[in-house]
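User: Show me an example of a complex going from sequences to structure tokens.

Assistant: Sure. Here are the input components:
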Amino acid sequence: MSLRSYILTRIILALPMIFILLVVIFFLLRIIPGDPVLAILGGKAPLEVIEQKRHEMGLDKPIMVQFFDYLKDVFTGNLGTSTLTNRPVIEELKDRFPATLELTIFAFIIALLIGLFWGAESAWRKDEPLDIGARVYSVLLYSVPVFWFGLILQLIFASYLRWLPVGGRIPAVTSFEVRTGLYVLDAIMSGDWKGLLDVLRYLALPSITLGMVTSSIFLRMVRNNTVLILSKDLVKAARARGLKKRVVLYGHAVKNAFVPIFTIIGMQFASLLAGAILTETTFSWPGIGSYLVMKIRYRDFPAIQGTIIFFGLFIVVISIIIDIVNALVDPRVRY
Amino acid sequence: MARDKKFVSERIGDFARDLFGSGTGRLTLIGSFILIFYVILAVFAPYIAPYDPIERVGLSLEPPSKDFWFGTDNLGRDILSRVIYGSRIALSISFLGVAVAFIIGVPLGLISGYVGGWLDRVLTLIMDAMYVFPGLILAIAVAAVLGPGIVNISISIAVVYTPTYFRVIRNQVAAVKDEMYVEAARALGAKRWEIILKYIFPNVLPSVVVVLSMNLADALMTEAGLSFLGLGIAPPTPDWGFDLNSGQRFVLSRAWWGIVFPGLAIVFAALGFSIFSEGINELLNPTIRERR
Amino acid sequence: MKKYLVALLMLFVALGFSASDYIVVGTTDKIRTLDPANCYDYFSSNILFNVLAGPVDYKVGTAEIIPWLFEKWTVSKDGLVYTFTIKKGAAFEDGTAIDASVFKWSWERVMKLGGDPAFLLGDVVDKIEVVSAQTLKVTLKYKFSAFVSVLGYTVGFPMNPKTTPADKFIDGAPSASGPYKVTEWQRDVRMVLEANPKYFGAKPKTPKIIIQFFENSTQLRMALETGQIDVAYRHMDPNDVLDLQKNQTELGLKVYLGASPQIRFLVLNVKQKPFDNPAIRQALSYAVDRDAIVKTVFSGLASPLYTLVPIGWWSHIDVMPKYNPKQATQMLQKLGYSSSKPLTIDLWYTPSHYGSTEADVAQLLKRSFEATGVVKVNIKYAEWSTYVEYFLNGTMGLFLLGWYPDYMDPDDYLWPFLSKSGAASMGSFYESAEVEDLMIKGRAATTLQERTALYQRVQQIAAKDAPYITLWQGFADCEARSNISGIVLEPSQIFRYYILEKK
């Protein structure tokens, strides 16, 4: 199979999955108890106003008609209007998505860095204290609920030591221009180094929390794969010949150990997103996760539905991209 | 996608194996010790807990002392007793959630794998769609739909894990259904359901048990996350996630014990369950382990 | 390297302190809408009070109504026709003058759109006429002595007809006519208010106010303690308020406490078993330990309340029974309940709408009812929209609810609770021809004496019939860095950003 037809097949295969996702989400949310119209209008609205609103929102139509309207809307990029704010859901998601993306990317980088270096060093010094420490760290960090871990870090570094801000994304006053919504990038593009430092300080705790919790997977994979490669005759020979550690370890062993890690990145990204919900809530991080939690509190139907669809599509897209990259890296995947 | 390890417990188990070494039986021992410890706490809570977990027994927010080892919460209740009783909710929801997932996922997997055809394709597609979705988000959505209550929370958790059972069973069934002994049974005129129940199911059971034990730790963490977000069961029933959430309100008034102890209870339980499942895995399925 | 970083950080801190042209306010509250035609929650009104000019204002720190856009007004003898004179020279930020036709347009828009607060005008206003550019004539459907008070609420604030759609609610910020204008708004994240140069009144003391939104009280408090915000307003947890108050000097903070007209109460659905029996409702009203709630949950900051009308308001009298579990036990035993055959009831609460303390309140109420020895309580909860549906359709028999006034008159604490339509919208479904008659008389009566007597009679009957058991009256609080001045917690609950100042 050529690369192009592989990519095409992969995308076509994703379509039924997206469709099923849409069906499941639609019917799931229709059975929520709690009338969205009453939630918007409160208790004091007269009956005719309630009826009119119901009509406006299309809630008086038969369920199948509502369903097809919904499918049509989704495919035209219309995720409905938030009942709480009267704004298009897609607009609200656009406002908040960069925050989640920035948090996830940085958490990912932190997880990779910890995993890569600690994992490689542990493999180099197998069974020494550093290695045992790595193993204890992995077990513990993965048993820790991310919201609890975040709270503890917040108490230590924000409340007690006061090194880092408590929550939020930027200080009250900033001077850089927001263009992409990824503040790190925006600050760099505006050449505002003070602003960049501010942004990084706000980003530190949430991304470290999420990154550390995720790092244990990478740590373990790098360590085990590197151990495996280091035990190969070729590498042993290289070590015996007195080649520099940096060359042997990072130039050869880790590089090879990295390939299998790539295959789990897709799934990791999905679980990072889930972790982001709890992390964002802990740190008042204005991303999609805290948005979803807030909208569930207000039973804002269209917003909840839109957010979940958005999450679903995002994950499907990520997994397609990962698969394609895999196919590029390793041609065997295609067959 | 490659053989992804989606669930927390699978990984903790791996980590634990790295730590303790494999094939020694030590894992099973340590894991079952922790598991039994929690089961005892849950079953004998009224005898173990020093106080009634929902009654005021001291002043508000008393720090840990001889009378109250873990301190008291803002309503003057003993946190130690609440942590002990909390294991009841944690265990029953994770057991119930996993059991529901088992009851739905296994038969569907058996039928889908054995019958094949369009039914198999449709079911696989649905289950795959649910599987790729982040578990917590799915559970949050379902929990928000169903509202509070032990059964409802269990169902939200079950929704997350049903696809796991389905996938494991379906693939195994598809693999064994053409084996000799099944063919033989079919030739002898055994009915379809007989073949599934008598010949195929016992053969795929070990892998199911492993998945089951693995999901327990995950279910526990998911339950904690849900109740932390305010989607759990109603107070005053002791619940770790809920207590943690209400404990965080008093942390700045220097009442650290309100979040530390319920948090540790969750960590320790998740740890124990995963180690246990890894041990079970080694005992039951020595062959399916990936070896290095 | 480390030294360099520390020096850099200190420089930023120093920069932060020297700039006093802005004040950062933190909150956990949310803004729902900035359209006066749909605005019916506290924090949305709070912003509107600072960006729009209204017909009338309250004198700072009092409940006394003073002119604002309306210079003066007269009321006809029969109390039905109001003639308002509008101030000259008032305009929106784009220069559009605020005259009588703007008022007519805005109020008719409110009534036509039928948003949450529309009934405040719609129920009483019959017609609005423009007499001249500066004169507006309003005819009421019936005599309503609190009409001018209603105009003090944002529902009566005029909107700019040039920029506001006539047929739908706005979803952004309105065209400013008050001391500030909204220059940046990221929902639930931050909002920036800057001085509105076109405002006819006094210039704000601080040209820029930045509002930051937080997830919960713990984060709000940490942000204040660490200096990330200057002022924390609304929904600091009571224990945090008290804790900060204790340590305010060493933390460099000042804690402000004030009265609030918010009341909290239990609703008993008189159409649902067993609460359809007045004797049971009566008995339960003896079994409520308000002091325990106020002390344990609110650290003594709130006040126990024994009637519907708030403490300190005219006609307020304590009419509901004081806590007496023995009496409650006896009354219930008389009805055939015992410890082996207890009265089993569900008690509902909603976890986020009234803040994080609500679950504690429910648990203390359970304890207090069960202390009678003959009641068994199951606590249940539902998120707000589900909750609203449940109480409107009569699903819930006993539940916690709160009330915040629309206008500063005892009528607003009686009519919405005890009239047939009001009671249905509160979920108690109470009906009493006698009470309704007394309240209508109260609305028409002109002397304070007459009205006081009528409203006290209403409160007594309400206590006897017990469709509501009031629990406590809230408190207002605000915490600020000690270099901030101008914080006034007003009886009207208006929070004026334009008098805040940083030294």
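The lines above are the inputs; the final block is the predicted structure for all three components together. Confidence is low (pLDDT under 50) at residues 1-5, 287-292 of chain B.
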